[in-house]
Amino acid sequence: MKNICLWFFFSFVFLNVSNESLFSAFVEQRRQEDQVIGPKEISLDSLMNISSKKNRVAVLKTMTQKQLLQLIQAGEKYVAEENNEGEVTPVGIDEIKRELRFALSRLNRWEKIKQRSAGVASVAMLGGGAYLLVAERQRAAAEKQRAAAERAEAERQRAERAAEAERAEAERQRAERQKAAEEKQARTDDARNAVFQNSDALGWRIADFLPQHHQGIFAGTSTAANTSVNKAQRDKIHITNLKQFFDISKEKYPSVTEITLICKFTRATSSTLEVFFFILKQMPSIKKLNLKWNNFGPDSAQPLADALRKLKQLTTLHLGENNFGPEGAQYLAHPLRKLKQLTTLHLGENNFGPEGARHLADALHNLSNLTTLDLGFNDFGPEGAQHLADALRDLRNLTTLDLAVNNFGPDRAQRLAHALGNLPNLTTLHLGGNNFGPDSAQPLAHALRKLKQLTTLHLGGNNFGPGGPQNLAHALRNLPNLKTLYLAGNAFGPNGAQHLAHALDKLPNLTTLDLGLNNFGFGPNGAQHLAHALRKLPNLTGLGLIMNYFGPNDAQPLADALRNLRNLTLLDLGGNDFVREDIDKIRAVLPRTCASRF
To answer: Are 348 and 322 in contact (CB under 8 A)?
Structure first.
């Protein structure tokens, strides 16, 4: 039995060695038959650049299983990373991958032959190789999945960067447009100021409620404040800073009747203002108090209200442009009820809003002696219009009323118009920039017919539209004393020029007329109708016709009309479509003393 086992052992070894020799000889013979060329190790890129399939197969036969697996892995990574973009090779990656797999399978078959002849040990080695191949394939698959995830993340980041760049570009373009608009407006303002530097006395605040790029020549400034420095009298104090006021107040003027304090945008401390208001209480003889442009803010409204309670002789009070807000209106309304001697009250540009209008209306009911009331630029809105309409019925002595730029809108226009019709003594009325709309023209016109004492009327920036002139024309014919008329920014259109022409015939005393931004030039006869009316206004000194789309065909009728206006000192035709010949034609007929802009 022992001899038999030894015989089997030596036979197994002999057969294994013999098979190994036979296998080696077989491989060597196949290599010689296939005429192997090239190195035994080669990269994937070099393999792709071998154009002959026979040569590639010969090269692959020289490689081991590990080398073939590395090339297969490199091929998978080559596809996963998309390295073939923009590269040109004689052989595609797909064909190379097929040849690699075929070479590996053939090598595996050879290994199987060798392993079968080697017995149980060879079989174990073959199983281990298969396990390694499966593990390698699993690792390659995981690597491919990871590469795909990285590629997706890179794509997402690329999209985010593109979106951010797009947002940055949009913001840059917006900033450039805004800067260009500001520079253009600055140039326009400089040119206007250079030409019309002496025009302040002509106009009021039409520019404040028109769009900035539509500002015309009639942008005059208020002259209510005297800003003289170091001017002190026994009964009047005109100062521009709180230190001057404190120095003068030490002398204890018991008979001071007028104080003008204008510290525009002064950032005074609360304690300093508290001292100022305390001293103000010690001057009960004050009759005129001007505190405009001091930017007191809501916090100063209450101490100011406490001081006003002591100034019972006040007849003139100017608190405009102090940004009191709705809260400030509530505090100021209480002392205002007691100031029954007031004849002039300025509360414009304080941002009171609808709530402030309600508080102020309660106070105005008691101020029946008022002759001048300024409530412009407070954004009262439709609700505020209703409150003010109720209060205006008790102010029948008013001669000047400013309600400009309060965004009343069309909703309460009829109620407000009814209240205005009960103020027969009005000589100056400012209703510009309230966006009344087309439907409000008729009730406003009905109220204007009753105001026969009017000398100044501002209705600009209300978007009355083409139907507005027909209604307003009936009212204007009944205002023979009118000297200043602002109707800019109402989009009347060419037909509106005809209706206005019939009304302007009845206003021979007009000295200032602004009809800009009304689109008269949109029709063929707009300029002709307007020119016909201008011939009947020999006393005109200021005329604004900006942005009416007048063209070359309108130059001649306008020139014929302007030839008769020998008193004209200011003419604004900016923003129209005149050519150089048209401008020269119009300037030729103007008086030498007339400043003009085109």
So the answer is: no
Three-class DSSP category at 512: strand
What would the two tokens of residue 40 be? 């035994």
Residue type, 553: N
Please tell me the distance from the alpha carbon of residue 3 to that of residue 506, in angstroms, as a whole number: 149
What's the burial of 166, exposed, middle or buried (CB within 10 Å: 0-12/13-18/19+)? exposed
Place of tokens 């002064």: 266
Closest to 542 in 3D by CA, of 517, 562, 560, 557: 562
Do residues 286 and 254 make contact, with C-beta atoms less than 8 angstroms apart? no
Which of 30-34, 77-81, 277-281, 477-481 holds the top average pLDDT? 477-481
User: What is the rounded distance in angstroms from the CA atom of residue 133 to the CA atom of residue 124?
Assistant: 14
Strands 236-239 and 288-290 turn out to be: unpaired
386, 415 in Cβ contact below 8 A?
yes
Q: Return the HEC string of 460-498.
A: CCCCCCCCHHHHHHHHHCCCCCCCEEECCCCCCCHHHHH
- Give this prediction's pTM: 0.61
Residue among 309, 376, 368, 307 at smallest CA distance from 342? 368
CB neighbour list of residue 77: distance below 8 Å, 6 or more residues apart: 143, 144, 147
Question: Per-residue pLDDT for 29 more than 70?
Answer: no
Question: What is the widest separation between alpha-carbon atoms in the chain?
Answer: 150
* Integer CA distances (angstroms), 221 to 125, 224, 549, in order: 104, 9, 28
The most confident of the ranges 75-79, 126-130, 425-429 is 425-429
Are the C-beta atoms of 402 and 376 separated by less than 8 Å? yes
Q: How far is CA 243 from CA 239, 272, 275, 280, 317, in A?
A: 9, 10, 11, 14, 22
Give Cα separations from 156 to 77, 79, 167, 168 (angstroms).
Answer: 21, 20, 17, 18
Owner of token pair 């304690």: 271
Question: Could you tell me which residues are beta bridge partners of residue 236?
Answer: 258
